[in-house]
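> example.struct
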């Protein structure tokens, strides 16, 4: 039996943001092939370093792990990007480089813990078309996504690129627009299901999987 396990943050654990609508896990379960199962271990607010605390609950029969992490790490640094003064552009870039280096190390450690489970694993990028998002934050997100893609590539893991999945304003929750709406959650669920049911050889490009 195939058993998909969703780990990470509120991109998957978005129940509180859909006003009684269906969350990502419910969309996934409603579309699973016969005999498949899905489990939600992701928790709202989880940062990359916190994903390891979810691993003890991964079922023994899990056949595919899907991880969304990094958005909360980026959010933690949003104040620095928007408001901290700097004497020069070089100083700004140096600070951002340090943030990226630290995040990349944390992400690498998370992937190491995941891979120790010896189960097929796919990770997600952080989407960046959130309504009203500051252009400076979009630029900063690219640093986090670059780290995600590079570390996943080094680990030989497929990447589900949510930047290609949630591209419209309606994909984001009105109550808190950094979270996926019911419509956005449905898109994410479809992308997950396509990614885990389609051979990599049938995808265009290499291991970057889109919508």
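> example.seq
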């Amino acid at each position: 039996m195939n058993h998909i396990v969703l780990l990470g943050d509120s991109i998957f654990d978005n129940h509180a943001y859909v006003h009684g609508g269906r969350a990502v896990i419910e969309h996934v379960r409603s579309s699973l092939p016969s005999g498949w199962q899905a489990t939600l271990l992701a928790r709202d607010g989880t940062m990359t370093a916190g994903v390891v605390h979810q691993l003890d609950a991964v079922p023994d029969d899990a056949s595919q792990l899907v991880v969304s992490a990094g958005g909360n790490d980026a959010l933690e640094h949003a104040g620095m990007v928007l408001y901290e003064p700097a004497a020069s552009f070089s100083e700004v870039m140096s600070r951002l480089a340090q943030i990226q280096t630290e995040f990349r190390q944390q992400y690498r450690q998370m992937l190491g813990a995941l891979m120790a489970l010896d189960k097929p694993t796919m990770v997600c990028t952080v989407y960046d078309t959130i309504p009203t998002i500051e252009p400076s934050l979009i630029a900063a997100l690219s640093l986090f996504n670059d780290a995600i893609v590079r570390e996943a590539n080094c680990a030989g893991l497929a990447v589900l690129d949510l930047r290609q999945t949630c591209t419209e304003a309606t994909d984001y929750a009105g109550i808190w627009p950094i979270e996926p709406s019911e419509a956005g959650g449905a898109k994410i669920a479809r992308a997950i299901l396509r990614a885990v049911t389609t051979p990599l050889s049938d995808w265009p490009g290499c291991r970057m999987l889109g919508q």
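> remarks
The longest helix spans residues 89-115.
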